[in-house]
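This part of the workshop introduces the protein records we will be handling. The question running through the whole workshop is how a given chain folds. To make this concrete, we reproduce a full record directly below:
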Amino acid sequence: MLIGVPKEVKTHEYRVGLTPVSVRELVGHGHRVIVQRDAGFAIGMDDEHYQQAGAEIAETAEEVFARAEMIVKVKEPQPAEIAMLREGQILFTYLHLAPDPQQARGLMDAGVIAIAYETVTDERGGLPLLAPMSEVAGRMSIQAGAHCLEMEQGGRGMLLGGVPGVPPAKVVVIGGGVVGTNAARMAMGLEARVFVLDKSVRRLEELDFQFGSKLTTVFSTAAAIEEHALSADLVIGAVLVPGAAAPKLVTREMVRQMKRGSVLVDVAIDQGGCFETSRPTTHAEPTYIEEGVVHYCVANMPGAVARTSTLALNNVTLPFVLALADKGYRQALRDDPHLRAGLNVFEGHLTHPAVAEALGESYLAPEEALAAG
């Protein structure tokens, strides 16, 4: 199979779909890889490294899209990229379609086979291709939040850990999954007072056992979210419903009542955000102030640490890329129900139930789509 790796075009996105190490593995399996010039240059993965691994270097994205049977990316295709996709082409990347009807329609009209990293599952019910980026984003959320609390960023002028004689900041993490756990871990490391809210008692028990008295766990209800958000200095939105739009758990009225200069970091912004006042931002302009509260809503947070993120992502995506290339997408999807859960768009149809429901579109089960094919 001929696999194409275009250079990412989203604002300040420096990650790359395949590393030279991954390319070498694919070439070793008898496949060909075409990489756009300078696709990994910003993170120290030069064209020479790709060529040494056996890749061909293409001058333009147009050449990559025109020739490749499968496109491997990081971020969702932008409108100019969607225009280059063709019928029957495989697209393997993060998609986050639920809050993005325009992208979904573009992929449906293109007739591609679009497999989303974020809905691929594993035998434990986890999301293995989302987990490493969630780890990065969770850890970064505290760095970003701490920075936003500084006066120059519009914040309250607080140091997360305080100093002797001055109490630390209160950090509230809504959601105790991968993002929330990593955010809490970083916040505790900086000696903040940390509260994690989750509606799973079992998950709260696990967090309590893991972190002990350093962490306060709270069963998540509307009343609990309101109580803790209003008294927080920093709130991390770490809620995920796989494939679906994130629920709006913090209302505008709650934000209006929060302390002036407090900070909201919405890690769920890829799925539409879990704060009613959230809107996507970029690393070029990461924050805005609304209702007196600083909002950090960067939709590709791990892109700021692109080398770490690219290496972590390739560790988990490579086995699936190899399966798709070795077997062909039909057999690979039929053989592996966890990869099949990643199928979001198939030749004009939406094939993930949560995505179809969020967009108000008809749903075709992946098994039926593959059988019909």
Remarks:
- The mean pLDDT is 96.
- The longest helix spans residues 306-327.
